Amino acid sequence: MKQSGMYQLIEHVRQVQREHQLWVQGSCIIVAVSGGPDSVALLHVLNHLALEDNLKLVCAHVNHGFRGEESDREAVFVGELANQLDISFELGQFDVPAYMKRTGKGTQVAAREVRYQFLYEVAMKHQATSIALAHHGDDQAETVMLHLLRGSGPTGLAGMRIKRVAPQHEQRLELIRPFLQIYKKDLVATCEEEKITFVTDSSNLINKYARNAIRLDVLPFLGQYNERLASALNTTAEIVGTEDDYMAQQTELLYKQLISEIKHGLAFSAKSFQLLHVALQRRLIKLILNYSPFKMEESDFIKIEDIRSRILRENPINWRLDLGGRLRCVREYDIISFVQDVSDQHVAGYTYRIDQDEQEVSIPEIRKKLMITQCMAGSGMDTIISSANNTAYFDADELEYPLTIRSRLPGDSMRLMGLNGSKKVKDIFIDDKIPPSLRPHIPIISDALGRIIWIAGIRRSALATLHQHTTSIVRMVLVSEGEMS
User: What residue numbers does the annotated binding site cover?
Assistant: First the structure.
């Protein structure tokens, strides 16, 4: 005995539920119903399964305000259907044309934004775990073709997913598509067989919209060369989708391994990046751009490739690339950083006096302080002299007080040990590969004659060095505020 179309639909959705865990017992599901055969069939199928899994269903319909009385009749139809099935009903009525005028967005984008925002709000109201959408195999084929024509990468060619987390949503909410492997002709045939009424959206027959043009013109034309074109596109989406998931997992692992959080952003080593396959390089950049706090989901191939090519240059130089949205990509020697609000990294000039009996000098402009101690040679300090960069030792008798701790000035130079004459501080920074963004944060210490004795944390000068006749030693340590010396 031949099984009915509705029975087959229910069995198919039951199998998809088992395979993808679309819901759990007792879940609340918002069902988006336009009134067409696909969404109406979905509501009937889920209503049947709700008895088995103790599901709470909420039927949600959006009147976009495009088609006047026709849209109003559809809203009434869906409301009556929900009432017949004893399912809660939520109606959203919007003036999308006004929203388009206010935002400058196109018809399809504006309608989609309004529709999904309403569905999210309904889900929040009912504490739902998922929103069920009636997208089917023909919709998937159109999506893949649309993305292909736009020059999409693997993520776009993977099309829609049977289950995915709703983007940019406060609570864990999933979008589920139980019909994604079913084709529309089967849904229409089932409705007709079961005498289930539905409505037809007249705007679906207007090919001025890109998706409609693909459905009405492009796919039928290409179908001359492959009568199973929709199936072929769906197979492509499934294959690409699985491989895209794998690549996304690998990129997430690389992100955890290579990316460090820094003030105002994220950073990684250019050398480590250059060792990656080009596919992972592109994905890693895109993930960074899409990652909190940047959320630059509109990042495109040209932008990503510009960043990637700059990082791969054989003779790297320090550079800055404005990415928009107050975000910059910056290279400083081997470090690539994506930083936001970098303007507040500017350090105001400062000057502080250091008298001979001074023990601590605070530098609030850079959130640092200089700790100063003095002892006699032979007291033990000379045997435990630290080689740390943040520490320097001087012959106390050769220091000309008062000393000064200040910000760097143009033309600064310092006498180095083993070098006849002086060297510009700027050149010392370059030789030591000190990132330009860090240079304003490095204090300069000079003596009463204006001679630089220490670029704190970087290099000390040839002045007041320790020797065998030294009798008194001054130790200076540069530490962060709150850090112990």
Answer: 34-39
**Which residue, among 280, 382, 372, 36, has the nearest Cα to 179 in the 3D structure?**
36
Q: Which helix (H) or strand (E) holds 228?
A: none
Spatial CA neighbour of 64 closest among 84, 104, 44, 92: 92
Query: Cα separation of 132 and 477, whole Å?
Result: 63
Q: Tell me what the mean pLDDT of segment 24-50 comes to.
A: 96
How far apart, in whole angstroms, are the C-alpha atoms of residue 35 and residue 200? Answer: 8
Work out the mean pLDDT of the chain and round it to a whole number: 89
pTM: 0.73
The 10 Å Cβ neighbour count of residue 259 is 19
* 385 three-class SS: coil
Instruction: Give the whole-angstrom CA distance, residue 13 versus residue 178.
Output: 6
Evaluate if residue 379 carries a pLDDT over 70: no
CA angle, 292 then 298 then 303, to 5°: 100
Q: What is d(CA 215, CA 207) in angstroms, rounded to the nearest whole number? A: 8
Is the distance from CB of 235 to CB of 243 less than 8 angstroms?
no
Asked whether 444 and 366 are in contact (CB, 8 A), the reply is no
Give pLDDT tens digits for 360-370.
Answer: 999 998 889 99
Contact between 214 and 30 under an 8 Å Cβ cutoff? The reply is: no
Distance CA 77, CA 131 (A): 21
76 DSSP 8-state letter = H
What pLDDT is recorded for position 485?
A: 43
Nearest to 219 by CA among 232, 207, 230: 230
The residue among 148, 297, 118, 166 whose CA lies nearest residue 210 is 148
Helix segments in 414-482, DSSP class H: 425-431
Ranges 45-59, 167-181, 224-238, 368-382: which has the least confidence? 368-382
Task: Please state the residue numbers annotated as binding site for ATP.
Answer: 34-39
pLDDT of 474 > 90? The answer is yes
Residues 6+ apart with CB under 8 A from 320: 328, 329, 330, 331
The angle that helices 184-193 and 37-53 make with each other, rounded to 10 degrees, is 70
Residue 355 in tokens: 């008298």
Residues 50, 87: Cα–Cα separation, whole Å: 11
Span 106-137, pLDDT tens digits: 888 888 999 999 999 999 999 999 999 999 99
